[in-house]
Structure formats: C-alpha cells, structure tokens
Amino acid sequence: MSSQLNEKDREQINAGIRKKYHKVAISPEGQFKYPTGREGLKKLGYDNPIIEDLPNSVAESFCGVGNPFSLGKIESGAFVLDIGCGSGVDALIAAKLVGASGNVLGIDMTSEMIQKANANKELVASDNVSFQVDSVQDIADKDDGFDVIISNGVFNLIPDKDEALQKAYRLLKPGGRILLCDQVLTGPLSTDLKQRVASWFQ
Question: In whole angstroms, what is the distance from residue 29 CA to residue 39 CA?
C-alpha cells in the first residue's frame, strides 16, 4: 500500500500520529482498545520483578501490544535500539538488562513522548539509556551497530514498512537481532485509500 500513498497522505498520517501521541504522553488510559499501564504489562507477561520495580507513574505510562523481551534474551553489555520508544518503558527495562556495560537508545517521532521518556528516566535514575526525537528511516547509521533492536506496536504505523525494516537491518551488527511485537490486520482491507489514511492512526 505504501506505493499508493502520496506526500499529502504521508503528512496526514504523521500529523494524526503526532496528535494522538500528544494525548498519550499525558496518559495512555482510554486511548487504545487494549490494556495499558501496569495492567498491560501484567497481561503481556512482563516479568513480575521488573513490573514491581517500576515506579507507579512509569508503569502507568506504558502502552504496547506485546512483550519484546519474551522473544529473546538481551545480554549484559549489549547495545540496544528501541524504535518508537514512546514513554520509554521498554527502553528502561532493556537498560536494566544490559547493565552498566551496555547502552540503550530510544527513538520516537513525537517530541512529547521523548519528553515523557526523559522524565521517566529521571524517576528510575538510569545512566545507560538516552532518548531522541528520530525515526528509523532518518536515524544516522552507527559505525559499530546495534546488538538488538526492539520495537513494540510501531511498524504498523509506518507507511513505508519495507524501507523501515531494511534500514533497521542495516543498523544491526552482523548476527544482531530484531525483537518486534506489532499488530497485524486479519480481516478484509478497505479498498478506499482515503478511508485507510484517515483511520491509520486510530
């Protein structure tokens, strides 16, 4: 479908995403059809000690469609990229897993979400994680690459998914892994392009 989109369509999609996630940065409650916050973490099978260790305001800012940490182990010392980090909950969990010898970078296209992620970072006093406004398509290549890329409910929002995935693989070290959770359409896809664009971010 991405080949059918023109620049105006992409601008409309991005504007809609920014508008929605401006609200999510304040509180994700009621913004999604699935559980968010601490309840969402529990239902998605995040390890109990990790959930309990999160300050309440950090846990309550969580919104994700899956548990990327259930897909593979993240080793101590790893360099991790979180694509579409949102409020930073997954990135902060990854920072605990990689330890002081590792590092985590979280990127999100919405400045309000990055502000929220940095506020959450202060609450957990994590020194090995950083956040920046960016997208997977635009992030500068890293000379040493990432050991692991995580992403939670983000690629479904990206119009040019092939381009984004190709860039993600280029950002990995040889043998690196992508731990990706997302939503997949299982019903019929509307043939009305305008309708699809209008509902893209809902």
Answer: 11
pLDDT tens-digit map of 33-82: 678 899 999 999 999 999 999 999 999 999 999 999 999 999 999 999 99
> Which residues touch 25 (CB under 8 Å, ≥6 apart)?
87, 110, 112, 113, 115, 116
- CB of 146 within 8 A of CB of 177? no
58 in Cβ contact with 123 (< 8 Å): yes
Quote the CA–CA distance of 144 and 137 in Å, as a whole number: 18
Using CA atoms, how far apart are residues 89 and 98, in angstroms rounded to an integer? 15
Q: Which pTM does this prediction carry?
A: 0.85
Give the C-alpha separation, 106 to 112, whole Å: 13
Q: What is the CA radius of gyration of the chain?
A: 16
CA-nearest of 161, 55, 168 to 107 is 168
